[in-house]
Amino acid sequence: MNDRINEKIEEIEKYLNELMGIVPDDFEEYKLNLEKKAACERYFEKVVEAVVDLTFLVIKEKKLKIPEGDKEAFDILFKKGLILKDLAENLKEAKGMRNILAHEYGKVDDKLVFQSITKELEDDVKEFINLIERAL
To answer: Which domains does the chain have, with CATH numbers?
Structure first.
């Protein structure tokens, strides 16, 4: 596995650990503590951006078809048997949510973001990293 891929995996794990270290225990605290909410949203963005970066590094390393967009990159990894379909879909949804957080602050569904952070993101990202490490 090349150094850039290893560095990106370490970056993802660092951001994910930092996010999990600050996320409130319940939705009420998340909603009311604007500083924590903003920090969680920013870390969510950073984790997802780094996952997308890793996806492109893997595509380049494996000499796969270059995707036209970020979401298509996950489909390429799925079609090559590197990740499962459910995981590809979850990561595409995370990318979509990241775009909303980054570009449309007024339309953010706080409950959906909190649920994604506390129930889905950590497991999906860890599964993604494990599958990528095994594939390379």
So the answer is: 3-135 (1.20.120.580)
Alpha helix locations (H) across 62-121?
70-79, 85-103, 110-115
Query: In degrees, to the nearest 5, what angle opens at C-alpha 65 toward C-alphas 8 and 100?
Result: 55
Q: Distance between CA atoms of 40 and 131, rounded to whole angstroms?
A: 25
| Residue 23 DSSP class | S
Q: What confidence score (pLDDT) does residue 112 get?
A: 93
pLDDT tens digits for range 76-123? 999 999 999 999 999 999 999 999 898 876 678 999 999 999 999 999
Q: Find tokens 């997802």 and name the residue.
A: 48
**Buried/exposed 68-99: b ≥16 CB within 10 Å, e otherwise:** eebbebbbbbbeeebbeeebbebbbbbbebbe
pLDDT of residue 104: 76
